[in-house]
Amino acid sequence: MAMILNDLFFESSDDEENNMFPFQPIARYDDDDFYELHMLHPIFGLVQRIEHVKINNYIEHIVHNYNNVDFLMHFRLSRRAAYQLIDQFTVSEIFTSIQERIQNNKISAEKHILCYLWFVGHQTGSYRDVADRFGITISALHTVITRVTDFILALAHHIIKYPTDLEKEQTSNFYLQRKGFPNIIGAIDGSHIKIDKPAEDPDSYINRKQYFSIHVQGTVNHDMKFIDVFIGYPGSVHDARVFKNSTLYNDLHNICGDNYYLLGDSAYPCLKQLIVPYKDNGHLTRAQRSFNQKLSSCRVVIENAFGCLKQRFRQLYHFKLRDIPRMVRVIHACCVLHNIANVQDLHYFEPQLNEEYPDIELQNRPIVMIDNAREYEDDVRGTHVRDEICNLLSR
């Protein structure tokens, strides 16, 4: 019955897409609310959805009257940063092509960006909630999210990028002066974005914390700004394997040269350009234990960055869309927005949440990780560099 309904049910739209396609199939979209039905008319075969109350002119009558703090709390970026994005989107090919193609376009550039920021910024922001707030249909919101994601990702290579020589020197000096640790230009780690059970190959998305997730590899500088992200592996894949398959792995020498290195945790192999802690076998020397503590205090920046990313863009605590490639693109876009944002304004937001709890259906279930660290052995040159640093720090 459900399959038949999905093929037959359509939602009418009074927004911009209506000019080209009067009806949109419900099955195209990801939000569960999109499938709500009010009644089936047995005589005429018509379907009506529950009517939802939309807020008319929310931006004009309410948002424009927010003070700067209220705006920040609602839209997760400062008013200045948000409207700079709006100005850029207004002149982008993505938006100007809409103006040329669709007469009487009702969704402004401002509404595009603010809809998007609200959606990614609120954990409970379903498609239905956001669409009602901004007075548009779910089908139009789906299109808005696609357009703005494409727009932000077009900016990504200008905003998330490898450090320049000057930036490397600044990060290195920061860690040398604050921690006494030389030649660091960044820290790397993996994080997990919780998702609902995928329709295809769900077991590969079960991570070691016993929930379904998408893996995010991030590398940040001392300011918690991403210099690289690699997103999309299923949650069961080990950090070391993700790293070995990332562009960053192949670019390590170009980024670090012979003088700099990144810091990682014990999930990664120790390489010449990637220094990790000594594995605690119960026989570490005092110098090695001290080295591990100092390294941990330096690389905590990447853990903090992931925490800040999710605290600001709370949709990432549990992403409930169904389309995994679409989720990957939105996660990437949130990393770009993270680099645009001011980390100092986080105290205005709700506290960070603990998302590391298992799904009920997965509790006590054996976890099968794809690969483990054994395949990725330490490099002799890496362990030599680590020993040199350990000796230097112990003097």
Automatic annotation (TrEMBL):
Which PANTHER family does the UniProt record give? GH03217P-RELATED, PTHR22930
Tell me what this protein is called. Answer: Nuclease HARBI1 isoform X1
Does the keyword Nucleus feature in the UniProt annotation? yes
Pfam families recorded? DDE_Tnp_4
Compartments, record wording = Nucleus
Just give the chief location class: nucleus
Q: Which coenzymes or cofactors are required?
A: a divalent metal cation
Q: What is the annotated signal peptide range for this record?
A: none
Q: Give one GO term, molecular function aspect.
A: hydrolase activity
Q: Which GO terms describe its cellular component?
A: nucleus
Write out the entry's keywords from A to Z: Hydrolase, Metal-binding, Nuclease, Nucleus
**Gene that encodes it:** LOC112468914
Q: Which residues form the DDE Tnp4 domain?
A: 188-339
Q: Which family does it belong to?
A: Belongs to the HARBI1 family.
